[in-house]
Amino acid sequence: MSILNFFKSKKPDSAAIAKERLQIIVAHERSQRNEPDYLPRLQQELLEVIRKYVEVDQDQVDVALDDSGNCSVLELNITLPGR
Amino acid sequence: MSILNFFKSKKPDSAAIAKERLQIIVAHERSQRNEPDYLPRLQQELLEVIRKYVEVDQDQVDVALDDSGNCSVLELNITLPGR
Predict the structure, then answer these.
(1) Is A47 part of any domain?
(2) For position B7, which CATH number holds?
(3) How confident is the model at residue B12 (pLDDT cuts 50, 70, 90)?
(4) Are residues A25 and B42, on separate chains, in Cβ contact within 8 Å?
(5) Residue A18's pLDDT is what?
(6) How close, in Å, is residue B55 to chain A by CA atoms?
């Protein structure tokens, strides 16, 4: 559960305390290196699911895709609007 | 990108080499402790999105939900069928 520790280890600043954050990480470990990677196509659909539950501003979504060997990692960091 | 290191640090065994794995982590940092947690409802919808791209056996899905203070973490570990 390393991601929980990641959140906990961050020192909150005043802006972070007021806001909510959502982080989605999808990691795909492939058995063969040359398979097609569907993570880039997946990211928009994941956001649409999240939008059913919370309001998400498109410009508050930070997307990173890391492809290293046979492991692809899609990371979405979303700052949710304050209420 | 700690999740990438998590995958890399695991020593592969013969079964792991033949299989593919998909890990989805959704972490929600709430500004207030007593807000409703939508992560449990989210997990089935995330799986339905994943199923559009890959075949997922229901009994190959391991779900963990960790709620600690103002941070909830939903973790889905999926072993994909070998081809």
Answers:
(1) yes
(2) 3.30.1070.10
(3) very low
(4) no
(5) 55
(6) 13
Q: What is the pLDDT of residues B14-60, one digit of tens each?
A: 444 557 899 999 999 988 766 778 898 899 999 999 999 988 988 99
Q: Which of B55, B62, B64, B65 is nearest to B78 (CA)?
A: B62
How close does chain B come to A58, measured CA to CA in Å?
A: 17
Q: Are A80 and A67 in contact (CB under 8 A)?
A: no
Instruction: Look at B23 and A22 and tell me if their CB atoms are within 8 Å.
Output: no
CB contacts, 8 Å: A75 with chain B: 1, 3
The verdict on residue A2 lying in a domain is no
Measure the CA–CA gap between A45 and B52, rounded to whole angstroms. 10
Q: How many CA atoms within 13 Å lie on the side-chain side of A13?
A: 1
The complex's ipTM works out to 0.75
Measure CB to CB from residue B45 to each of A2, A42, A49 and give the nearest one.
A49
Domain of residue A37, residue span? 22-80
Our count of domains for chain B comes to 1
